[in-house]
Structures
1.
Amino acid sequence: MTGFSIIRRTRLEILQANLGYRCNQRCIHCHVNAGPERTEMMDRATIDQVIAFLDSSDLRQLDLTGGAPEMNPHFKHLVRSAREMGLHVIDRCNLTVLEEPGMEGTEEFLADQGVEIVASLPCYLKENVDYQRGNGVFEASIRVLRKLNQLGYGQKDSGLLLNLVYNPLGPFLPPLQILLEEAYRREMGERYSIVFNRLYTFTNMPIHRFETVLTSRGERLIYMKLLQEAHREENLNAVMCRKLISADYRGYVYDCDFNQALGLHLQMEGRPRVHLSELTGIDLKGNPVPLLEHCYACTAGQGSSCTGVLSKAPNSKSQINL
Ligand code: SF4
Ligand code: SF4
């Protein structure tokens, strides 16, 4: 029982493609249980189905995620193809992957293609980042951010967007995005001479690895209560599942990446599951999106989506507690 009203899709604008669950990191909040041991990766045939779908649609954006999407051997082929079609392409990058063997030149490729980078950095303090994402992650992230800045990313008028992502270290809501962005800009500038465009705050999704951590600490029910009590109905107008679909590494389609992680397929005409190749020419406008308990992570407080908050801060005088 969630108490949510039904919501329906608006015009489809964004395809979020999950290129596989392999990742060089194994973060404690990861909602897809990604890690170095995962083998699921989108193959070339499915990548070509993604390209064919994009070619037949009037979508404006391709959003690449994973795992670490850059680890997919067909990543560059997909990016080039989407850019040739004039799509805006986003790479959801964990930064450290760009220092892995075989990734040489990927930063330059992203800059040449004008790909927007959305990079996870849950704090400007080393100990907090390494706690959530693993030892050594903070220093590697700083090195990669400096290189991206040198290539023009985050620099005024370069056209190369570098947006950072904060998510809480524990079972609480993010601070106000507008205040935290100010603090990040100041601290990243003064401590490390790093610039960026925007900071997005994400609410941790109580599923998979983060749910396991909460359960093991006896904090799951407390967190769910927090999310439900902070629910704001107006956030339902802007949740990302209204205008985005998510495709998994096999090309099956979901209302969002979280539903993908939970195996909750997009519902259409009573079919148990829908493949991207079956959506050519189909208008999903008006299609219902079933909302479940985990959806409170999208509607609590300022709301949460893949581009940060959904509604204005109720009061900008709140404290920042990282
Ligand atoms: S949160 Fe991102 S960087 Fe961390 S394990 Fe999951 S996919 Fe990898
Ligand atoms: S978790 Fe729920 S509310 Fe959030 S995007 Fe997915 S379906 Fe929509």
Note: The first strand starts at residue 7 and ends at 8.
2.
Amino acid sequence: MDIKKLYQQYSLNTYTRVGPVFVKGKGSWLWDDKGNKYLDLLPGWGVSILGHCHPGIVKVINQQVKKLMHLPNNLFFKEQALLAEEIVKKSFPAKVFFANSGAESIEGAIKFSRLFGRGKRYEIITMRNSFHGRTFGALSATAQSKYKKPFRPILAGFKEAKFNDFESFKSKVTPRTVAVLLELIQGEGGINLADRGYVKQLRQYCQKHSLLFIVDEVQTGMGRTGKLFAYQNYPIKPDIMVLSKGLGAGVPVSALVVNKAITDIIKPGMHASTFGGSPLVTRTSLEVFKIIERENLLVKAKTMGDYVYRKLSVLKDKYPFIKEVRGKGLMLGLELSLDAQPLFLDCLNKKLVINATHKTVLRMLPALNVSRDELDQGLEILESVFKAAL
Ligand SMILES: Cc1ncc(COP(=O)(O)O)c(C=O)c1O
């Protein structure tokens, strides 16, 4: 069976697919259909935060599919309630809505902001080079014109400010502004970290002027930065947090987490999702939280993250085309003075999976349980690719 031919014939051409046909995964490793083994330091674009097929996750999925997979959201079931409780206990006093993807929960945040603005305020300020997803609201919030151009006119009510520039943000505020939406580390935008002072100023401004402070933690959440949620690296709490990717460690689930103090404005019938927060995905996600705790993965993400960061900094001193090393925990990027795509392909040829983003950035989002030895193997391949590019 020629799988690539089937893709060509039957799949809509929305992705640039490369590499072999993969058939199985375990931890930070993948195998192709010829039995070749690949080191995956970007498992599932950051989704597979516990690596591929973590035994604890496989076990609860197996148990849950035999018990109860799906129920509609007009009925009660314990898995969803327990997960909502867990998220709130680990973050801030809030109530949670479950959906299936990052973009879908961003849509929820946009709708909630419109409710909060009560028809008078509806503008949301987002940050240059942000990425919030591909559905219409999330796409409109994404301040990168390359994604939006073919689909104009986009949704009205979004203003773009420069990231890490408080004056730029202030210059975009109007009497119609209702919220600010940002990633504390921009992922697709090239691993750009929000400054502590900037975040504090933004948060204070929002508080003072009754604007919602919304953090998109789709990529930064679930321990990625060494804290369970990236906002916990800052002296702030958001009004709304959006989670996805690692939340299910492989099953599709996302969450809109809204500060309890402002939840009364949303009423039954205003928002819904057929699949959102099913017993299957919420039971799985609950286990993700347990495993992160049991395996001490926040500490590991920080230790391993610091380790790779140091190693990448050594590479930077050796290879003049590496302009900057950026990141926190296990969310890392190398800014190059070269096109990153060919280097990503060279890595793939040498059986290392990472990715290229924002043209000149090589990105790594290793599983939180990646070992030092695996990281060393990946860095060795990366260096061999850099040597060849000199
Ligand atoms: C920060 C951020 N927000 C939103 C999204 C969209 O998530 P999804 O592709 O699950 O809709 C992504 C996807 O990469 C993301 O990185």
Note: Residues 153 and 356 are 29 Å apart (CA to CA).
